[in-house]
Amino acid sequence: MPVLSAKQKEQVRTKIHEQISEAEKELVVLKEVTAAIAPDNSIGRISRMDAINNKSVNDAAYLNTRNRLKQLKNVIDKVDDEQFGACVRCGRPIAFERILIMPEKRICVTCSR
Prior knowledge:
Layout: H1 6-33, H2 45-75, H3 96-101, H4 109-112
Helix pairs in contact: 1-2
């Protein structure tokens, strides 16, 4: 028996497409802010250190967003599976609200702790 109804699966599919679009836009912005800091740029030492720190934070955000985008693209193919929406660890249904927020996560809240 399917875990999610056809209507719920369509809602999830729509949400995944929205999140993919958002992640792709975010990657463009993050790509710009993670550009290398030119050593000949005439900013002060403290400002340069701050810029380097910000770059490392943005680099991490870029990697996280890129990984999430990959997960979203992988999970969209699984939405039509009969067991989509069931926790891959315990087999119990994942709360529909959790699926809408983080469709790439395939485990329930209890198992994620």
